[in-house]
Each structure stands twice: as C-alpha cells, then as structure tokens.
Amino acid sequence: MIAHDAGQRLWVLSGPSSSYVLHLGDTGLPRVLHWGPRLTLEQAASLPRLPQPSFRPVEDFTEGTLDLTAAGGSRFGQAGLQVRFADGTRDLELVHTGWRGTDRELVLTYADRHYPFTVESHYRLPGGGDVVERHLVLRNGGEPVTVVRADSATWVLPRLNGYRLSSVHGRWGAETLPHRTELPYGETLLTSRRGVTSHQANPWAMIDDGSAGEEHGAVYSCALAWSGSWRLTAQRLPTGRATLSAGFGHDPVTWELGDGEELVTPVCAGLYTEGGFGAASRAWHDYQLRHVLPHPGEERPVLYNSWEATGFDVTLAGQTRLAELAARIGVELFVVDDGWFGARTGDAAGLGDWRPNPDRFPDGLGPLIDRVHGLGMRFGLWVEPEMVNPDSDLYRAHPDWVIHRPHRSRTEFRNQLVLDVSRAEVAGWLHRTLDELLTENAIDFLKWDMNRPFTEAGPDERLWAGHVRNVYDVLDRLRAAHPHVRIESCSSGGGRVDLGILRRTDQVWTSDNTDALDRLDIQYGFSQLYPARVMGAWVTDSPNPYTRREIPLDFRFLVAMAGVLGVGGDLAAWSEAELGRAAELVAAYKRIRPLVQHGRQYRLLPPDGDLSAVQYLSPDGGEAAILVWRRARRFGEEDPGIPLRALDPGGRYRDRSTGRVHHGAVLLTHGLFPELTPGDYAGALVHLVRERDSARDTEG
C-alpha cells in the first residue's frame, strides 16, 4: 500500500515486509529516506528529522540520495536522466509540480524551470509482494529535445558496512554464470549493446553488505523489463553511498523528442528482502509467477525437439518416426525445429520464406500435425521471424528491409541479416506471416528464435527501441488472436531472457549447451532471478554434441528435471532399454512437476563442489522434491547429509519411493542422505510427502 503525509510531502510505499520512503525536501527533488524493513507512516515521518550530512562547498549533499537523478548543477555523479535542449543546454532544473495516486500507484510530476519539458515518475506496487515497479514518462512541448539517457529507475541504497555486487556473465553456451565481487568506488557498468538482452550479461543486479549468504542477510536488487540494448550502473560514492540505475539504450544512442512527443521507459522493478540470496530469488520467482507470466498457473508440458536428431534433414517420415518414439516415453509436446520451410536445407537459405518446403511436405504440415495430435501430443514449430537469408525470396523482394547503413558492408552471422522490425511495413509483414501460419495450421507452440545481434544499426534511436517494441506488439497481437498458442523465447540459446520478454512468452530456452555438467552452473545462475517454471532444459545424447562429454542417462535426466523438462536426443538411435528408462524418468518428473514449476526453490548446495542439490517445496509445505547431483566421488569419501529447508520440524515426511519416514527436525539439522550410485555423475530424486498427524491436525 502507499501512504502519504501531506504536511511533510512524504510517501511510504510498503509491501508485506518492506518499505520505500520518498521525501520532497527544500530542493523539491525526491530523496530516498529509507529502503528496507517495513515502517509505518508515523515511523517514516520521523526520518526527515534525523541529522543530515553537513554541506561541503563543492559537493551536493543530495548526491547518492535522489530517487530521480537529473544531470545538472553541482551533482557530478551518475545521472539517470540526461537531456540536451535545442540551444545546447544540458542541465535539467526540475521543479515538483504535483502528484496523483491510489493505494497501489503513485505518480510524481516535475517540470523544467524554463523549457517546456516535463517528467513523470511512476511507481506501482503489485499486490502480494515487496516488489516496486517504476518507469518514467518524458514529454516535450517545444523545440526538439535530445534525450541522452533515460533510466527507468535509480535505486538508492542505505549506508552499509560494505557493498558487494552480484550479477551474471557469460557467452554463447555459457550463459548466466554467477559473479559476486566487492563494488569498487566509481561507476560499474553492466550492459548489452547488441540489440538483444545478450548472452554476455543480464539486466539485473543484487547488492548486499558482503556478509549475506544463501539463507541469511539483507539483499537489495533490481531488474529491467527490456529485451533490447540496456545498461545498469552500480555507483559507489566517496561519501559512502551507493545506487543502482537501470534503463534501456546504450551510448551513443539518443532519442529525439519533437514538439508534443513523449518517451515512456520500460519498467524497472526493485526489491528489498531479508533471508539472503535464496529469499531474494524466491521473492523474484513469486513476483514473476503472480504478475509477469501470461499463464502462470499452467504446468509446462514435457517437450521433444527434433533439432539434435535431424539437423536440417527434416522429412515427414523422419519427424513422424521421432514423434511416435517421443509419445512412447511420455512426451506431451512435439516440436519441429529448423529446416521445415522454404529452401531451408542448410543455414545459407530460406530464412524469411515461412511456408512449408514443398519437397519435404508436399501436402503441407497438416499430415504431420494430425499424426502428432493423434498420438496425444501438442504440436510445436521453430521460427526465426526477425531474420532473413540473402538467399531467400523475401530478401530478393525487399533487400532494403534489413538493418543496414549506406556505404557500409552488411555483416552476416550464420549467413543471415536482421530485419528492421522497427519499420511499420516490416512489422506488418511479420504479423501477417505468422498469423497466417497459425491460422492455416493447428499449431500449439512456437519456438521463437533470434540468432544474432544488430550490426550496422547506426545511432537511430527509433530502430533500437522500435524494433523491440514492435516485436512485443506482434507477440501481443498473436497471443490475442490465437490464445491457445504458447511461445518459447530463444536467442541462440539464452540471449533474450528478461522480464520484458517473459510478459509475452511462456518459457525460455536457457542455453544451446545441453551438457548436463555445464548446465548445473548455468541453471544455478539462471535461478538467481528467474523461476524453474520458465527454464527449458533438455536431455540430449551422449557424448554431448557440444562438449563431447559422456554422461549417463539418469544424470542427464535428473539435471533437466530442475526446470521445464525436454528431450532433444536422437530417439531413433536409443536402445529399447534407454527408451524404457526414459519413460520411467519422464513419469517421475511428471509426479514432481507441480513442485518444480510452482513450488518454492531452495538451493541447498551450489554446483562448485562435487555434490550439489536443490529442493522444491509445495506452497502449503506438504511436499518436497529434492534433486541431488554428484559430479565426482573423490578419495572414496562418503557423501555428507544434505540439510533441507523450510520443513515443519515436528512433521514426519515419507519418501514416496522407499516408504521410509523421516522426521522434519532431523532433515533440517542432520540432513537427507540420498542413495546415490557409486562413481561419478550420480544423482537422485527424492520425493517427500508429509504424513498427516491426526492429533496435531485437530489441535491446529
């Protein structure tokens, strides 16, 4: 809820366990007096009376405390809002002009002292959690204004004994690897200049005082809902203050606002939690399940994807055979990947021509779709609609539709170029093409890929932002017209994962690297912000097609069970024993799927040791699923007990496989001792169900 003290010009934005307190002091600029444990309005109203830092002649005492940081005056730190007026003036002198709001939303309004330029700072409290959503609306009422930077939010941290920055880094095949380091003085920039979220970084960050652990300590975090270029600046000032500021765009891209035009920034969400990084992750997971995902209550089906089995050699007979085998092992969604359309017999031709290849599918996709549906599965299809091959009918008809600059080379990756979806005619074509594909065929699922970054894009801000917004618009329109279709976001693996794309898709492809051992690290970092409910994870062949590592089938399945289970191996080459075991493991996953996809996740042991584990707990605490993985067994040592989390210490929990009963207090202290097979690459799934205690239930 949002409470207001009119006399002090103070607002308190409170969730169940935290508060964010804003105050308009003598300067008229919004200072953050508190971000932390929940305060009442009366308690918050006492904060302006606390001693303030003494004035220093060459420093602004508000530096590092402002919720809206506009460049100008004696503020020399990082400024989230920077403009250039037509006469060359770069300083913004904002004056508070009013506010409006409800118990869940607040808008503070400002105007420049001289120029007809206004700013609205929006705050929203989605119900049921502690996340605060923020964005800006900039309006120009006169001569053109250049917006150099417009961060959606600047988050002011309290004074801490230290500052540690947590984020993820990576590359193709090694996405979302966690990284924690002391925040240095100055400005630390996390960014993507690629036109997509990127494999190399992800638009979120967490700050703690250096002492937080997985289950203890205060954590401050923010995440940007944007699927294009972005930047997030963590600033540590000599005064002992620190801030996080996040927004879309990157240098040197700017936005030109003409008379009467406005710029609306994407949402940046912020969160304060107690209980360490685990509690922060669970709060972010809960927020996405409640307020971000379009169909949060659904269980994502077990899927099969044909790519690693067939590559570009897609035929009706081959796909039908794979579908029959997939149905045998319990798959619920069969997805045909690249190679079904146009002249697509390799990666050099066909992108942009989204009609079934007449040689491979002379009667269209209908016969295959009917067979898949007849086997009791849903049907999915891979598309990459933002891309085009120069060797395609689309490119030959519209070579000007790609992102390019005059007198510059057209850089190709994987023999493809990026369509300029910011252009209305390109976005219109994209929507019509996919709408026809979905209308003419009984397709249940699209794997929407985007395999390369922008090049030769120039500084045109309407391209960089317009491309993303038009992709969002196409997705929104397709979902409205085809409400039964579900969509997976893919970008050459995990290159487009963020809160913006997740508002419009149902899951994401985490990484092209399906090696089970590597996936332990990738999935651990992914879980820091994103829930298992959206994390696509496949079981593929051994040796792995990417790493050539040989790993047993059970271990590969147990790793993939930590998210949305998929199978991507060549089932036609699997033995009867392997197919039979796969069917057993798929059935086991389906039993724990409600816990994995909708339960609370506890990272019990990180993947940097020989033994790692994760626990999923049902919302009512009555069931738990524990996945345990052993990389290697060294020196013949016995596996230690793994203490579980958040169980009822007075409860008793029965193992559904063995029937053994465990006491909650023992599981919480001495731990679980799962039975792992000897040797390397061993794993276990333990499914615990709390037994009813008639006496206790009656007393309760």
From TrEMBL:
It comes from the Bacteria. Residues 28-257 form the Glycosyl hydrolase family 36 N-terminal domain. It is an enzyme of class 3 (hydrolase). One of its GO terms (biological process) is carbohydrate catabolic process. The active site is at 449 (nucleophile), 512 (proton donor). Its EC number is 3.2.1.22. Coiled coil: none annotated. Transmembrane segments: none annotated. Substrate binds at residues 172, 337-338, 414, 447-451, 490, 512. InterPro entries: Aldolase_TIM (IPR013785), Alpga-gal_N_sf (IPR038417), Alpha-glycosidase_related (IPR050985), GH (IPR017853), Glyco_hydro_36 (IPR002252), Glyco_hydro_36_C (IPR031705), Glyco_hydro_36_N (IPR031704), Glyco_hydro_b (IPR013780). GO terms for molecular function: alpha-galactosidase activity. The keyword Hydrolase applies. Residues 612-688 form the Glycosyl hydrolase family 36 C-terminal domain. Keywords: Glycosidase, Hydrolase. It holds the Pfam family Melibiase. The keyword Hydrolase applies. It catalyses: Hydrolysis of terminal, non-reducing alpha-D-galactose residues in alpha-D-galactosides, including galactose oligosaccharides, galactomannans and galactolipids. Belongs to the glycosyl hydrolase. PANTHER family: ALPHA-GALACTOSIDASE C-RELATED, GLYCOSIDASE FAMILY 31. This is Alpha-galactosidase.
